Amino acid sequence: MKASLKACDVVIFGGGGDLAMRKLLPALYHLEMDGLLAPTTRIIGASRRDMSAQDYQEKVRGALDEFVPSSVGDEKTWPRFKERLSYVSVDAQQESDFSRFNDHEVGGDNRDVVFYLATSPDLFGSICSSLATHDLNKERMRVVLEKPLGRDLESSRAINDEVMQNFVESQVFRIDHYLGKETVQNLLAIRFGNTLFEPLWDSAHIDNVQITVSETVGVEGRWGYYDKAGAMRDMVQNHIVQLLCLVAMEPPGRMDADSVRDEKIKVLKALRPIVGANAYTKTVRGQYAKGMIKGKEVPGYFDEEGSNPESRTETFVALRADIDNWRWAGVPFYLRTGKRLGQRYSEIVIQYKSVPHSIFSDESNRQLQRNQLVIRLQPEEKISLTVMNKVPGASEGMNLQPVDLNLSLTEAFHNKRSPEAYERLLLDVMRNDATLFMRYDEVEAAWKWVDGIMAAWNQTSERPKEYAAGSWGPAASMALPIKDGRNWHDY
Known about the structure:
- By secondary structure, the protein is an alpha/beta fold.
- It has 2 domains: 8-175, NAD(P)-binding Rossmann-like Domain (Rossmann fold); 179-418 and 439-483, Dihydrodipicolinate Reductase, domain 2 (2-Layer Sandwich), CATH 3.30.360.10.
- It contains 15 helices and 17 strands.
- Strand 9 and strand 10 form a beta hairpin.
- Helix 8 (223-248) crosses helix 9 and helix 8 (223-248) crosses helix 14 (440-458).
- 41% of the residues are buried.
């Protein structure tokens, strides 16, 4: 990441909240530490609470001590970062309060302004309207919208329409932090920066694609919020669908925001609808029950505080997606995500087809495995390619064994700290680069596809299937690829 030289004001609505303290301010602190903020860039927290700039600085200092261990005792970066921090007391629902931004000269001297809306989406429309009323929606001013953007197509459209009554599309940055991960961005480099992979990136060579986002945590005291969302809205509609788009899209004409997003929207429009009876053969949903994770018993979904035993909200989803175009005809995309699973990781697996004809002996043929490209997003960031190799030795015959060619980003770039996703995304907003952000039509197309699945679920009285915490989801999810003659990567 090269330095952003143009100064700007970064205003964080919900500046004292959990997202700001855990993610946004630590990300900005790291940008400061790496010398990527212009000398006169300012960071302004905004929330209803009445506090002084000094009080806010102390609150941020405490958050950094907790969430950025390297900041403890740092007498080099913190003094510079502290000077950037100020605070404005603003009730997002009181339009008159927004005049205080003018008192702080936000956007003065033709400075760019980033308004980060780390609030409930219900407030996005009123915040944007109040900003516009106070002339804080000029062309050089931008708004960042945190997910969730609604709970279905209709509510998402209502939120976006409210925002875009006051800001044009080029000023709106809809964030998905998964797209800021180094390995996700590296997916574009792998595909379009190497002659090795792109010629083999189609249905003639790839058998199936698997995308897994697995969590060991439960709802962690957020039962009321999560039960209104569920795994489909919380993970599939945004994170997983975006990963699918990056895997499946055609090469863009150039590496700019609209060229990349134009190709992603083509993938979304080519997704085969999963509606009606197809939802029962192409999808599996589940709810976790109590079980063991790392030797410790954990509660089930209905054992969590505030739970309702009548809930049919899914904590696990597995599905088969199909993309109806020339590149991917006949290639299944298996997607899954869930809470309280056996291991925490996120990965993309490209499973290649078998060799068309094997020249090896029967024994070697039994050992012959197909090539796999595995892109691990978390907890570690790495890429591995499984190839067949001869076992060293002078024994008779050709003994083969699969070997992984590994690229660990940590080891390959051992002198480079791997930035957190929010660091890259915040810097891109300040640079006015929307490549890694979602466009209005992307959000709508994703919701349209997901709404069809959820509508089919709602037409039945069938409850989500139970699975034990620490397992890999309901047994039916294991069978999802098996009935196609395939298996999940970890089986």
